[in-house]
UniProtKB/TrEMBL annotation:
Listed pathway(s): Amino-acid biosynthesis; L-arginine biosynthesis; N(2)-acetyl-L-ornithine from L-glutamate: step 2/4
Keywords: Amino-acid biosynthesis, Arginine biosynthesis, ATP-binding, Cytoplasm, Kinase, Nucleotide-binding, Transferase
Protein name, UniProt field: Acetylglutamate kinase
Catalytic activity: N-acetyl-L-glutamate + ATP = N-acetyl-L-glutamyl 5-phosphate + ADP
InterPro entries for this protein: AceGlu_kinase-like_sf, AcgluKinase_fam, ArgB, Asp/Glu/Uridylate_kinase
SUPFAM superfamilies: Carbamate kinase-like (SSF53633)
Main localization category: cytoplasm
NCBIfam families for this protein: argB
Described function: Catalyzes the ATP-dependent phosphorylation of N-acetyl-L-glutamate.
Keyword Cytoplasm tagged: yes
Family as reported in the entry's similarity comment: Belongs to the acetylglutamate kinase family. ArgB subfamily.
Length: 257
């Protein structure tokens, strides 16, 4: 069975129900599972303590070297380990790494204006396979390795799609909203053209922009199924496991129509 790559939004981590982690453990009994996580709110909280104001451009964090230090401490440090503990509490074996381990995510500066934001250029999934073969769910913090050996901040949605591409699995974005919304309704399916229009007219904004772009990229790269769904919804992972996914679905058929 195809692996499932589950991106857990930083927006959800502190409030996800324990069943979410338990259900991922159950999913892992039937297929390989890889977790990628974000860390937006926790990073903002740490930045606030240092009187650094968060700055975003099209949903991507402008990352100076001072910001990068905080991103790495929080994302690859406290938050990554907190997630591993959540799995551990449910007796699910998980091991936390960053995109620097085993040169998993090699990246280049995306745009000088954004500072130390990385664009993934190469994925070396051997560290993922090593963990999976040893029975651990890899829990990946999206800090990449730059061309000069520097740490780069990679948007977690972008990192997840690159990892899903390299493993050939389904991609699930678990976030803090029930899917892509328009006028307070969830769009159950989203085509490429519609998504672009909704970004243009501002219906899709902030952190939903890189997520939808990552989903479109996933479909264009041949990933069969991509979902944006609500991590807070009870049973959402089990529903996916039984082909009853909720939220917004992106699939080749719809995107090409
Ligand atoms: N059309 C839209 N439908 C749904 N959410 C939207 C839309 N436009 C903007 N958003 C915002 O996008 C947010 C989700 O993206 P966000 O980046 O904040 O979360 P995340 O990716 O799950 O977390 P993190 O970036 O920390 O990993 C929602 O909470 C919502 O405020
Ligand atoms: Mg986000």
């Amino acid at each position: 069975m195809k692996p499932a790559i589950i991106k857990i939004g930083g927006s959800t981590i502190s409030q996800l129900p324990s069943t979410f982690y338990r259900d991922i453990g159950e999913l892992y009994e039937t297929r390989q599972v890889v977790v990628v996580h974000g860390g937006g709110p926790a990073i903002n909280e740490s930045l606030a303590k240092q009187q650094i104001k968060p700055d975003f451009h099209q949903g991507l964090r402008v990352t100076s070297s001072a910001v990068m230090k905080v991103v790495e401490e929080v994302l690859a440090g406290s938050l990554n380990k907190a997630l591993v503990r959540h799995f551990s509490d449910q007796n699910v074996k998980a091991a936390g790494i960053s995109g620097q381990d085993g040169q998993l995510l090699k990246a280049r500066i995306l745009n000088e204006k954004l500072g130390l934001v990385g664009d993934v250029k190469e994925v070396n999934p051997s560290v993922i396979h090593a963990l999976l073969n040893a029975g651990f769910i890899p829990v990946i913090a999206p800090v990449g390795l730059g061309e000069h050996g520097e740490a780069l901040n990679i948007n977690a949605d972008h990192a997840a799609v690159h990892i899903a591409k390299s493993l050939g699995g389904d991609l699930i974005f678990a976030t803090d909203v029930p899917g892509v919304m328009k006028h307070n309704h969830v769009l159950t399916h989203l085509s490429h053209d519609e998504a672009k229009d909704l970004i243009k007219d501002g219906t899709i904004s902030g952190g939903m922009i890189p997520k939808v772009e990552a989903a479109l990229h996933a479909v264009q790269s041949g990933i069969e199924q991509t979902f944006i769904l609500n991590g807070f919804e009870t049973g959402v992972i089990t529903a996916y496991q039984h082909n009853r996914s909720t939220g917004t679905t992106f699939s080749k058929k719809v995107v090409q129509s």
